[in-house]
């Protein structure tokens, strides 16, 4: 037996259903917009000088060269710094890489816009082979960054636990040997 629905509360129930539906719809729309923005929106690239890349302006080309070299060096340094941490903080290392990658890709876009790599691609033969080589390196850096990410995640997935086990075994061995030495009353000796 179901309880009879009282007609005096009908307006109240409709208002509650309407508020619930409206609030839910707003939250879902906000969530979808937030995810879409995070996935697809790219921040506007601020450039200081986009008109300066011409064939005879060696200073601007050298600045572009220095920026691309800096991108390359930063990418390599960060990967090797993270690998040097070993297996201590797998999740933190992955998070560090993601945060670094986001900043690095933004900086790469800024360098690309300032040096006009996308704009002048295959359009300006006056800039010469040097600029073309620099443009190729700039493009390859993106692929290298992705390959490094795969390498790092592969290391985390397949080797980090083994390295962590080795680290723990060495730590246990060292503590045991130090305890034996301390029990015998021996003082630490220099290994060299």
Description:
By secondary structure, the chain is mainly α. Helix content is 72%, strand content 0%. The longest helix is centred in the N-terminal third of the chain and has 31 residues. Helix 2 runs antiparallel to helix 3 and helix 3 packs antiparallel against helix 4. It has two domains: 34 residues; 126 residues.
In short:
Helix content is 72%, strand content 0%.
How much strand?
under 5%
**Alpha-carbon Rg, integer:** 29 Å
| Euclidean distance between termini CA atoms | 90 Å
The number of E-state strands comes to 0
Number of helices: 5
Largest sheet: none
Total domain units: 2
What form results from the Cα inertia axes? flat
Order of helical and strand elements: HHHHH
Low-confidence spans: pLDDT under 50, at least 5 residues? Answer: 47-52
Mean pLDDT: 77
Structural class: mainly alpha
Q: Helical proportion?
A: over 70%
List the helices and strands and how they pair.
Elements: H1 10-40, H2 58-84, H3 90-115, H4 128-158, H5 160-183
Helix pairs in contact: 2-3, 2-4, 3-4
Which structural traits does this protein have?
192 residues, mainly alpha, 2 domains, 5 helices, 0% strand
């Amino acid at each position: 037996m179901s309880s009879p629905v009282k007609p005096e509360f009908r307006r109240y129930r409709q208002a509650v259903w309407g508020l619930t539906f409206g609030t839910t719809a707003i939250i879902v729309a906000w969530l979808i917009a937030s995810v879409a923005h995070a996935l697809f929106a790219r921040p506007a690239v601020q450039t200081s000088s986009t008109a300066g890349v011409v064939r005879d302006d060696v200073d601007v080309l050298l600045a572009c060269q220095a920026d691309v070299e800096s991108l390359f060096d930063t990418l390599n340094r960060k990967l090797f710094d993270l690998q040097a941490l070993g297996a201590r903080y797998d999740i933190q290392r992955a998070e560090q890489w993601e945060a670094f990658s986001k900043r690095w890709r933004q900086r790469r876009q800024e360098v690309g816009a300032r040096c006009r790599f996308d704009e002048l691609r295959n359009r300006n033969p006056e800039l010469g082979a040097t600029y073309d080589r620099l443009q190729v390196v700039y493009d390859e850096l993106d692929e290298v960054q992705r390959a490094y990410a795969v390498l790092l995640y592969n290391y985390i997935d397949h080797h980090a636990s083994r390295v962590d086990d080795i680290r723990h075994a060495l730590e246990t061995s060292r503590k045991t040997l130090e305890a034996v030495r301390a029990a015998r009353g021996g003082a630490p000796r220099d290994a060299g």
